[in-house]
Amino acid sequence: MNRKELDPDSSPQAAFGARLRSSREERGWTQEETAERIGYSSTHVSAVETGRKLPTLRFAHSTDTAFGTGDAFERAYRKVRNAGLLEGFPQFVEHEAHAAEVRLYEVGVIPGLLQTPEYAAVLAQSAVKRGAISHEQAKERISLVAERQAALERTPPPLVHAVLDESCIRRPIGEPSVMDAQLARLLEFADLPTTLFQVAPFSMGARRPFDLPVTILTLPDRSLVSYAESAQRGHLERESTFVLPLLTAYHQLQGESPSQAEAVAMISRLRKGTP
Q1: Domain that holds residue 241
Q2: Which of 92, 173, 221, 267 is least buried, going by the fewest C-beta atoms within 10 A?
Q3: Cβ(22)–Cβ(40) below 8 Å
Q4: Sequence-ordered list of residues with C-beta below 8 angstroms from that of 3, at least 6 positions apart, any chain
Q5: Do 67 and 166 have their domain in common?
Q6: Rounded CA gap, 186 and 202, in Å?
Q7: What is the residue-level pLDDT of the chain in tens, covering all 275 positions?
Q8: Pick from 53, 11, 82: which is nearest to 236 by CA?
């Protein structure tokens, strides 16, 4: 019988597979016995062990339950999922899920917290076609968008301030129906009692204080965290000395941007095909 040797240091996926194999062998379980205990086929277990298939959150939960390992496999799974994300983003998402207030500014695309599943899927599949991520990583990205949105529906919900550059709503993503549904989602967001929605128009020009996307979180203890990213990397900042100037710039952005009513009117006109 051929046995594929695993290098747990080569990738989070390999580390998950190595942990699964070692945990199984420590208990003297075969792959068939393990599969029966966690509710998957032995072929599936083998594929995860050898790194040919990515684990899912459900697989990780079932494995932790069967092995009595607390959340060890769930934590290992999150490292696998986060492998295709920018540096700093996984940590940012953890803070975002508990934030009392979220202030975000985005350029070019609708931000994840406001995306429809169809819009998120188009972006993920585009990344697959470019060779930037795998099909499995695309699925995880779409799942992460849903998880982030669900986390913000807690009670009480956070206050969310969203300022989108005009390019976000002008740039067509997917079929017209996808974009129309996405614009409708923005109108729904603007109508919520705990949100403020604005569009920074092209005409703002040099008065726009940000050139790149940025998010500022107010945590439950009133401390601030910011996250900004380029195409290559993300940066999570916890030091208030650096975050406070971003907050000031964000307030300036809101002051320069037209009102929410004007943003809603702009999107409504866009949906009707008028300038």
Answers
A1: 89-111+154-271
A2: 221
A3: no
A4: none
A5: no
A6: 19
A7: 456 667 777 677 788 899 999 999 999 999 999 999 999 999 999 999 988 887 888 899 999 999 999 999 988 887 776 665 656 777 888 899 999 999 999 999 999 999 999 999 999 999 999 988 788 778 888 888 998 898 888 889 999 999 999 999 999 999 999 999 999 999 999 999 999 999 999 999 999 999 899 999 999 999 999 999 776 677 889 898 999 999 999 999 999 999 999 999 999 999 998 76
A8: 82
Tell me: do 20 and 101 sit in the same domain: no
Q: What is the pTM of this model?
A: 0.73
Residues 159 and 235 in one domain: yes
Tell me the residue ranges of DSSP E strands in 187-265. 195-200, 214-218, 224-229, 234-237
Residue linked to tokens 């599969």: 35
Of the three residues 45, 63, 82, the one that is the final residue of a domain is: 82
Q: Are 261 and 221 within one domain?
A: yes
